[in-house]
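Input chain follows. Return structure tokens only.
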Amino acid sequence: MLRRTGRLLTLVMLCGVGQVGMSMRADEPAKADEPAKPAETIKTGEKRDTLLYVRTDPPGAKVRLNGKELGVSNGLFPVEPGSGTIFVELEGRKPGERPVIIQANGITRMELSLEPQAEAKMEAKTEAKADDVRFVAHLPPGTVEQAFNAAGAKPFADGDSITITEVKAASPDLKNGDKVIVKGRYTLASQPKASLCLFATSAGPSGRSPVRPGQTMAITQGQGEFELFETLTCDGYLHVSFYSAVDGKNFGGLYFGTAKQMKDIEHWDGIARVEVELKPQAEVSTETKANDTRFIARLPQGTVELIGITNYPPNERSQWWKPDGSPANIGGYLAEPTEWSLSADKKPLVLLHRIENLPADASSPAWKLEPSTGHAGGTGVRDAYGKAPPSYHMCCAELGDSAETVDFHVGIGVGPWETVITQKADSLGTASFNRDGQEWRVTLLKAEMRGRLSDDSTRVTLNATESWCRFEKRLVAVTDDGREHAAWIGSRGEEGAAIFDKLLLSSIKEFRYQVRSYGWIEFKNIAIQPGQKTDVKVISFDGAEKTEK
């Protein structure tokens, strides 16, 4: 009992020191001449976070644990308990690497001093020069090829995926001795935990090589990004793959390599593969700069940027392209679930766009596509992490067989509302108003209680002849106390309805039909498939035109 009690006291003291470490500024070293702070009393059974504090001299180094990037030093990072390897690197300094054992429910502290590169030995400098990555390939999403054998072998377990977005290497041949860096995204759904690894299947006699920290990273169920790197020790076929945290077995991956390498393995069953063409970095940088064109139209207040187009429905492997047909490396965006059913034989497309800097009272967007044979409506957007990025929208539509390009219109209602028709709640009927030299008729058909929604809700059905999206419209109910209650008018064709939730019909004195104008912008001549080169005309609200090629 005494020995166990002594161990408990020692543990409490260590946790207390950990608390002192948490209270320090991350960039302030501990001072040896300062008296130790008293240990914090820890209640028995109290659960604490498992944290890793990494301090480097100088600070600002990129920190990785078992290949997974944690952030930048000096910093305190939430981690899982266990053993691993810390790897830190900072431009102009030699990288640092050190094994670590992370204790649960406390803080583990690591300090590393990074030597200047100039002080490295000559042989190390020569080796680093030989390992420079001078060739790069950017991969647009959706370029993965898949092979399935007769038994139905699949490259991934259901719900899992790997997308490679960038490959860098010392040579364009991806051969023995080359340093390779791979970036991309993953989705892990089939298992709670796994390792994501960069390995090479040898083209010659098989043999095991040591696994280095940069080749593997621990991941948990969900989505994320990766960056893995390795110096090849054989000629073979590179792949990024999932490995089980339980038995270490592979359960799906993506092979990548040169055209010849992928030709060599085209007969392999049940694999996913993608061909990469590595070019000198200077050439790729020039291409990237030329492809930095953004398609932005201006509203009276705010902007609309058309970011990318893909086929409906979008998924993690969708291939996105810009309005002019060039690749759009924008990552994985998904549509929120809807009840829509778009026909695959009618060229259904998704247009991802961002609307920013609108006034507070601006409307939701309205859309029109020409030509369009089916639904042209919007839905919410989710990124690769399941979050809703602010200001992003998706419009989905069927184009039809004859479409070669598409014109995309976006309208936003802005400005003050104008009452054009007023009717008493107990004497509904037809009225008209004039705008732009035309007469428009509106009929308030019926006002009734809506028990399905709640006992005190009122539904007003109406019929309006103005063309769709000519105006933004709403119905306002004025109650006996003079208060105004606005309701959006949902419509299909000429018939629509406005619902006033938690508002008694008997309390409504009159209805006011209000309108305000939409501000429209347009993107003309949009490519409807990747690689289709078009000259896109961007027309802002004020009529200003700009052609992007």
